[in-house]
Amino acid sequence: MTTQQQSNSLQDAIWNGSIPLDIRLSPSECRIYDQADSYLYPRLSYLPFLLSRLHAFFASFLIDPTVAPHEAWFSYEDVPLKWHYPLGLLYDLFSGASPAHAEGSDRDDHSPSTEQLPWRLTLHFADWPGDQLVQPDAEGKVLHDAFINSVKEADFLRNGTAKGIMSLSKDDSTQLWSAVVEHKRSAFDPISQKLLYAQGAPLRHIPLKIYLPSSPSASEHSVGHLRVVQSLVTPYPPGSKEPQTLGTALHSLLPALFPSRKTPIHAKSVLHGAVVPMSAQIEGLLREAAYLDGWLHLGLVMTG
User: Fold this and answer.
1) Closest Cα to residue 274, out of 111, 41, 110, 34?
2) What is the per-residue pLDDT across 15-34, written as a single tens digit (0 to 9) for each?
3) Is-contact 100 148, C-beta < 8 A?
4) Is the pTM of this model over 0.70?
5) Tell me, what's the pLDDT at 112?
6) Beta 18-25 vs 119-124: how paired, if at all?
7) Residue 7 Cα distances to 75, 194, 216, 267, 285, angstroms
């Protein structure tokens, strides 16, 4: 298999990745119904796109039938889930499922528990956790703006300017959002390629966010039970002619967790449900494995 074929195969696997969901209505909001609505949902997509269907499914069993779909929120084991995070990221961060390993790689005895499928989520229509979640609107504008702002930030980091996303035509902007909502790759890829490979703009920084397990009493940068680390990551380490790898980037950003640039001693990095080798070049990861908003959202799993 050629390098291009491997790249295409990886991108196909990421785009087609999905998670079985078992969604139950919160018992405190349900009159009699105790069954679940099941979905096989794309890893790259967002939970709010399910709300209209879920509201229609559970409407006749709600204690308050006047509640609107956009007032709903999801939780897992009493942790409210950030609705603007892709489903795959949420699953990797919270489910406790073991990430996939490359064939022949070493495993250890400290891996997370076995696969938690289907992923059982609770749907709420009351008691919005305003201290942890921003309230969406009925028209979906808040979700749209959150996604586009994330795309703009990624564009700015890559190119030193957000001119790429800002200069898209109205038709292209509409096509981009519709492709995200409908999970339609044929419509998404042409616009994504314009942003990832902006003509005449050298890649300046890698849009990378790292999510660390954290206690509920952690600092203001905690997200639920997570801490999000974000810093400027260049395609090449300062003063080096060798491409930046995941290992060199993690060692620079989190040296206590990653004292080695080659071996994951205290933690492993997970992207799209799989452990990422420390030797992986960070620019290649961006080109082939970024989420729909143009970011590498990397979860950490502690190994000891």
Assistant:
1) 111
2) 999 999 999 999 989 887 66
3) no
4) yes
5) 38
6) parallel
7) 35, 18, 39, 26, 10
